[in-house]
Write a structure and sequence with these properties.
heterodimer, A: alpha/beta, D-Maltodextrin-Binding Protein, domain 2, six-stranded mixed beta sheet, four-stranded mixed beta sheet, 20 helices, 12% strand, B: mainly alpha, MetI-like fold, two-stranded antiparallel ribbon, sn-glycerol-3-phosphate transport system permease protein UgpA (chain B), UgpAE/MalFG_permease (chain B), cell membrane (chain B), transport (chain B), transmembrane helix (chain B)
Amino acid sequence: MAFRQIGAAAAVSAALALATPAYAVTEIQWWHAMTGGNNDIVNKLAEEFNASQSDYKVVPSYKGSYPDTMNAGIAAFRAGNAPHIMQVFEVGTATMMSATGAIKPVYQLMKDAGEPFDPKAYLPTITGYYSTSKGDMLSFPFNSSSTVMWINKDELKKAGITEIPKTWPEVFDAAKKLKAAGHATCGFSNAWASWVHIEQFSAWHNVPIGTKANGLDGFDTELKFNSPLHVKHLQNLVDLQKDKTYDYGGRTSTNEARFGSGECAIFLTSSGYYATAKGTAKFDFTSAPMPYYPDVAGAPQNSIIGGASLWVMGGKKPDEYKGVAKFFTFLSDTNRQAKLHQESGYLPITKAAYEKSIKDGFYEKNPTLQTPLKELTNKEPTENSRGLRFGNMVQMRDLWSEEIEAALAGKKSAKEALDAAVSRGNAMLRAFEKTAK
Amino acid sequence: MEKSTVFNNRLLPYLLLLPQLVVTVVFFYWPASQAIWQSFLREDAFGLVSEYVGLENYQALFAQPEYYRSMLTTVVFSTLVAALSLSIALLFATQADKNLKAAPAYKTLMIWPYAVAPAVAGVLWFFMFQPSLGMLARPLRGMGLDWNPLLNENHAMMLVVMASVWKQISYNFLFFLAGLQSIPRSVIEAGAIDGAGPMRRFWTIIFPLLSPTTFFLLVVNVVYVFFDTFGIIDAVTGGGPAGATTTMVYKVYADGRLGGDLGGSAAQSVVLMVIVIALTAIQFRYVERKVQY
């Protein structure tokens, strides 16, 4: 059966090859890490773009997980055949940026190609993450998300919790009530340990993760997340872990199912979890903004993004770059952005698309999808909440999570663990600085 | 009067050896020399900046307390995996060697896990023992055991050991079974007639006659735990919690692939290569003496 399909596909493509006129269509290779429904969205976008004009053809190919895709792209670049567009997750930003010559900055690309491009049309909390300190956009945001708190409304009601908790002390109280009401193994939990409890936590409370605007203003940044506030928060988690009022949920998203199964009624993870929650949860759920400590001045500040952006690789022909630029213009179209946002649950990247979704009344029906946007636009970003850019962030996250684990397992005090995470991380940053020219 | 054939062609032996030599050079010596060369360089991930730094990568490596810790973890992990996968496979092989009706089906089932990719095996075990959803973790928790490989180092170690052992048993089983079947029945029967019980027959006749197979498997299993287990560890624990399952080979993988630190990673793989070569040499020098061919 599979052979017949391949045969048919081959026949069709042969027929197409014969049918297309002799002038060459410029191919644009697009490597990505999107699976499931998001993979379909990627393919559909490419199809729509290819059908909208006849000079360029975008060819998407799935390359595995985020780290896999990034490694495939880097290996291809070293071998001299990098794709034109590469989807890289947010923590790969510093690595991509430091590779002068390996990439073509997006602002430069749009200028060279003569495409209309206004960086102000995009949501600053999203583009800020991918821009230089001067505001030059380096990569094109594609799928952005933020951290939200997922709430199982039915279980909260059963436990007698009438208000969705807003602050950390309220969350701890609610978790204790949930535990008493039968959630013996999990009062609350979260995925992405480092992203939630270090990166987002810092931005949300307007305290630095590191100097130099969390590394956005230079690679000579030093980590700062062993402050008394950070220590206090980790200590709270350590205390609650003892009786599972808080139960650690790992470094990645592998334990998100604990929310869908009903085990954990309060769960912090990406807003991009929406589609999965919709598909698995057999209860009434919603998303709420991340909790904060009310005694911290200025909290809550604003959240930072997760997700991925599209990087344009260097050393390609001007004509190919023109195609890439046209594709980005196509992606920025308001209607398309709004539709993309409403279908996938990822954030719209332009202000116009966000406004359109509000005007359409989309959030009245789907308030969960507005939570991350409200968080991101809560206040004008500060030095501490524009985003972060640390070298080797992929591995750095593992390192930070390791130390969080050491504290939760009772091997180190909260202070010792965060000090170790900072000093080990700093050593890694210095090593990165040496190679980033 | 013996007739011996003399080959006078000087080139022929080399020509006959050539295919094997080419394969060895292309697939072993060349990549190994690349790794050694790379370990003296500092490069960014893209290979845009590359400078010779001498022994700096090695110095940085041996200044890391985490590296010594990974060595210790490797000792624990490899001892457990090699010992368990060899002994369990031997037990299964002796059982499958009996005249059972279901023996063929049994053998087939035993061989299957070998066909499973390491990462897939890792994911399988991860899901079976995931604290809240795993079908095997729930009964454990039900019995009042606080099973939590996400935070408990021993639980995480048990999990990666189990997954690695499960994956390797099939391979060992195959060789043990072949070894058992080549032992002449008459020897065992003679033992039985002399009144030796099954245990005694096993330890005094079968086990010594099986020693070449056992030795070969010991060498292969040591190489397996040192080089081939990073896929399983990555899928099961990601080296956690707090580095408890970060073995040397996983660290090579993590630093090189996730950290983009090619120089440091290459230096580690050179160290690892030296250790495995030394271990193999020791095994051939000292353990092989006990083997009866």
